[in-house]
């Protein structure tokens, strides 16, 4: 049959009929739905039809002045307890995870004591503080000199005792909730923040706590809901909060059930409001963690009522890889046309590593490492897994402390200052400051997932270099354009491909204008098709005059860009030399064996 024979048949084919889709019928679910509706109707009928529930009495008291006053006190105690309790809990949690053993021990002791103490006992002790200490005074300790003093009984009102008791109790419990959140943040995030030289306080406030919030918030709200109900405990202080007020009323009129219903419904209202707040806080901290945020509940309700339009669904930021490749190539080519962005980087630093040794416990990871990386040099470190390549790299910016030897960049020690033959370790702030000269790009990118691409890039220049926000954004956008990612500035890292994330990580480091750039297996976590786009950017940097040290398994790339290759095994530098010599004519048998295995 020839083509002309079948063509008319194709043309004459009837249009495809639209098929009807019938969803699967779930009989069990339908029966269960009817059963649930029936059960609810029965419960409603029994609750509303039984006069002993006393709904008229409920209606009489629900909005009465004493009940509303009690409710106000409950809300105030909950709000103050939550704010002060979580404030105290945050400080305690930070103290517990700090490197200071004294702070960690003090925090542990506090948490141990106040978690053990029943709230009711704590409230009673605080209420009787006046018996233990008649006055509270400000003065010079151990001298008897007093500037001011107050009567404890007058100072410690039932309300203050209640706020203090709830704060101390919640502080101890919330500290553990917050510590759990901090521990859930990936170690790489701490390292990336430290490698960018961000001060400790900024690391905690901008990087760690916002990410920890995702696991803190659900448990924290459990605690706050517990607190709202736990305020009923302050009846021991004769403080008329909601439940105590209800008790006073039903003891007088003996309408126990209707008044308990008043308290129950108000607690339900409080809980519902807290649940809505929790939903929105969780939604806020989900930014960047989810590819698309859950809808804003209020907006959905208003949209259903036709009052507002629904938010447009977030558009996926990912572009096809083929397009990125060409886009990236075009930008990078463009950068060479007399407008070489890399020429604006500072002159490369000279790294001198002298007799460095390092052990983890009994495991000797680095021995007798003695290397010089001249300014502007490009060095690739290769070697078998576990040979100490990454550890060596991490000692250069003092993410790992060496046991012996020294490392200097342009004659300055990174982690120490020298006086004669003695090295004094610098304090954290000084180390962070010196670390700015040494950028580091990690295998797993370690971008901050809760910050947009542009925020990732501008964070350190603003906080560490003191650049204005607008200026940092201009720089960030320019660098992004240079690596072909201009349109990704407002995306979150999880909305990017691995190759794009790694290019952003390189830009983030470059924005600090370091003298030395360390790459720790920058392409190991990438699909083979994405490796090229990252190597393209590193290749361009290799011609920029910045000093590059690259731990890599990409032997072909090392041959192409490096002016020297170092081969390491069992923590030692076995040999080093020009790529052509190491890869084609290795002097050492172990180098030859390794290359025979990997090439
Ligand atoms: N923090 C640590 N605690 C204990 N041992 C460690 C630590 N970091 C690294 N090591 C050990 O030190 C050795 C060298 O590790 P390193 O990561 O430097 O090797 P590598 O050559 O980079 O390996 P790879 O190519 O597989 O990444 C390994 O045996 C590793 O298990």
TrEMBL record:
Under InterPro entries, the record lists: AA_ABC_transptr_permease_3TM, AAA+_ATPase, ABC_transporter-like_ATP-bd, ABC_transporter-like_CS, MetI-like, MetI-like_sf, MetN_ABC_transporter-like, P-loop_NTPase
Supply the name of the protein.
Amino acid ABC transporter permease/ATP-binding protein
ABC transporter domain location is: 351-595
* Highest taxon listed in the record's lineage: Bacteria
Concerning its family, UniProt says: Belongs to the ABC transporter superfamily. Belongs to the binding-protein-dependent transport system permease family. HisMQ subfamily.
Q: Read off the CDD domains from this record.
A: ABC_HisP_GlnQ, TM_PBP2
Cell inner membrane in keyword set: no
Q: Which UniProt keywords apply?
A: ATP-binding, Cell membrane, Membrane, Nucleotide-binding, Transmembrane, Transmembrane helix, Transport
Mind telling me which residue stretches traverse the membrane in this protein? 28-48, 68-95, 102-125, 131-150, 232-250, 256-277
Keyword Transport carried by entry = yes
Instruction: Give the ABC transmembrane type-1 domain ranges.
Output: 71-278
- Main location per the UniProt record: membrane
Give compartment(s): Cell inner membrane; Cell membrane
SUPFAM superfamilies, per the entry: MetI-like, P-loop containing nucleoside triphosphate hydrolases
